[in-house]
Design goal:
- The chain is α/β, with parallel strands linked by helices and 499 residues long.
- 34% of the residues lie in helices and 20% in strands.
- The protein has helices spanning 16-31, 51-61, 67-77, 90-105, 125-135, 155-165, 195-205, 208-213, 236-261, 270-281, 409-412, 421-431, 440-459, 477-482; strands spanning 5-11, 40-45, 80-84, 112-118, 143-147, 184-187, 219-227, 292-298, 323-328, 340-345, 352-359, 374-380, 384-392, 400-408, 465-468.
- The strands form 2 sheets. It has a 9-stranded mixed sheet with strand order 14-13-12-11-7-10-9-8-15. It has a 6-stranded parallel sheet with strand order 3-2-1-4-5-6, sandwiched between helices.
- Helix 9 (236-261) packs across helix 10 (270-281) and helix 9 (236-261) crosses helix 13 (440-459).
- Bound molecules: 6-O-phosphono-beta-D-glucopyranose (BG6).
- 6-O-phosphono-beta-D-glucopyranose is lined by residues 190, 228, 247-248.
Length: 499
């Protein structure tokens, strides 16, 4: 926990991420009294903006449902200042440092901690890490650096970034007693801050019945799905460099997979948890093209929504995938032979992220055609955990019906607020808890799984299959998923909680 005075410096403060995620999360913490007393937030970016202009940008994106919250936001803005400057100029950083020192004057003697949040494009990542280390590093307190993805384009570039950062900012906590912790990096994957992703450890390791069936003997296949309704509208330029595998699959979905598949950690200590995540990732061989479908969206069927290539910011003829399904295999005692099917795409028919664990057929079942059990963990929207089970259809017959044990959060926990992922993660940084951040060896293992296929797609210019904006994705998707043993229960079944 930070003691003394804390200043949060948001680099890239005028950008999209800062407006949409970082500042709203900081406001959430402020409103709930979770920012350390006296915290000042200083935004820094290249855009030359007056403080008033900067504040009105933040206001545009703030969700302020009533006057009381609006009043709190206006109070919050009093703690938010803004400085413009370049990312490669020492004199600009020195000006920023001066502003931080002025903010620190308001505190009593004691620690002067600085939390740097890099909401920046990767191209300026290293100069900024140098600039702040050289000009802004607090000698009198704790320094923490929050880094956003993308962490490279492949294994090699990610290692290069890591090597450039390592002498400046350390990865691990210094565990020696009496040695103050200094300059620690927190690599954000915001999916690790989502309530239902955090719940995975508890579902798995605090329930005896799941512990007993969480293996290849009982589980047939696992699907981790991320669907978005919107295309890349406006972000096409950025997206095209990366594609959906780098944007979502290699990080968010693989992080979820690692928690679904890991062994029980020795403790909840962050290194124990991350050790197990790395261990399971290292059991996954690189993905093969035979286990992949790539898609790119075209105009919607009614012609009202543009195709990916219609986006002016996308290079003509780009083969960048906006949809991918990939099956991963985990070569260990628990999971050998169980396909983990990751699916993600933009411009699809619905928005949802979920984990679907499908169990094996009931051996020697006397009830004909009984569908398989499924455990579904719905990450968003509408957090829920439900188990699809076969039940007697009430009445005089012995007919069966698919029903569910349903824990839908908005019913069960209607009084409780589900914090935003970024809020949860920034609070972890303030507390010095690394559990929900990506360690360097974890990142390395994740890149090893995807780098060969990414190179193959780039080098062989593999063309994605088209799917129309607003549909379920490439037509062959159902066949692909079925080829790994997934059995759809019935066309008619629909989870009643579906929104
Ligand atoms: C980001 C991706 O990391 O996650 C985006 O770059 C994606 O493309 C976003 O839209 C999804 O996050 P969330 O929290 O809205 O599901």
């Amino acid at each position: 926990q930070l003691t003394g005075l804390t200043t949060i410096i948001v680099l890239g403060a005028s950008g999209d991420l800062a407006k949409k995620k970082t500042y709203p999360a900081l406001f959430g913490l402020y409103r709930n009294g979770l920012l350390p007393e006296g915290t000042t937030i200083i935004g820094y970016a290249r855009s030359s903006l007056s403080l008033q202009e900067f504040h009105s940008r933040l206001l545009d994106f703030a969700k302020l449902p009533n006057d009381q919250i609006k009043g709190q936001f206006m109070e919050f803005l009093k703690h938010c200042t803004y400085i413009s400057g370049q990312y490669d100029k020492d004199e600009d950083y020195r000006r920023l440092n001066k502003a931080v020192e002025e903010a620190e004057l308001t505190g009593e003697d004691g620690n002067k901690n600085r939390v740097f949040y890099m909401a920046l494009p990767p191209s300026v990542f290293i100069p900024v890490a140098h600039g702040i280390k050289k000009n802004l590093y607090s000698a009198k307190g704790i320094n923490r650096l929050i880094v956003e993805k993308p962490f490279g384009m492949d294994l090699e570039s990610s290692r290069k970034l890591g090597r450039a950062l390592a002498p400046l900012w350390k990865e691990e906590e210094v565990c020696l007693p009496f040695v103050p912790e200094k300059g620690i990096t927190y690599r954000i994957d915001h999916y690790l801050g989502k309530e239902m992703v955090k719940n995975l450890l508890i579902i798995r390791f605090a329930n005896v019945f799941f512990g007993a069936i969480w293996n290849r003997q009982s589980i047939s296949n696992v699907q981790i799905t991320f669907k978005e309704k919107i295309g890349t509208e406006g972000r096409g330029g950025y997206f095209d460099e990366f594609g959906i595998i780098r944007d979502v699959m290699q990080n968010h979905l693989l992080q979820i997979l690692s928690i679904v598949a890991m062994e029980r950690p020795l403790s909840l200590n962050s290194e124990d948890v991350r050790d197990e995540k790395v261990r399971v990732l290292r059991c996954i061989p690189p993905v093969k093209m035979d286990d992949v479908i790539l898609g790119q969206y075209t105009k919607s069927e009614d012609g009202t929504k543009p195709g990916y290539l219609d986006d002016k910011t996308v290079p003509p003829g780009s083969n960048c995938p906006t949809f991918a399904a990939a099956t991963l295999w985990i070569n260990n005692e628990r999971w050998e032979g169980v396909p983990f099917i990751l699916k993600c795409g933009k411009a699809l028919n619905e928005q949802k992220t979920e984990i679907r664990v499908q169990f094996q057929n009931v051996p020697g079942n006397v009830f004909k055609n009984a569908p398989r059990n499924e455990l579904v963990i719905r990450v968003q929207p509408g957090e829920a955990v439900y188990m699809k089970m076969t039940n007697k259809l009430p009445g005089l017959s012995m007919d069966t019906v698919i029903s569910e044990l349903d824990l839908t959060y908005h019913r069960r926990f209607s009084e409780l607020n589900i914090p935003d992922a970024y809020e949860a993660l920034i609070l972890d940084v303030l507390k010095g808890d690394h559990s929900n951040f990506v360690r360097n060896d974890e990142l390395d293992a994740a890149w090893k799984v995807f780098t060969p296929i990414l190179h193959q797609i780039d080098n062989e210019k593999i063309n994605p299959v088209p799917y129309a904006y607003g549909t379920r994705g490439p037509e062959k998707l159902d066949e692909f998923v079925a080829s790994y043993g997934f059995k759809r229960a019935s066309e008619e079944y629909n989870w009643p909680g579906r929104q």
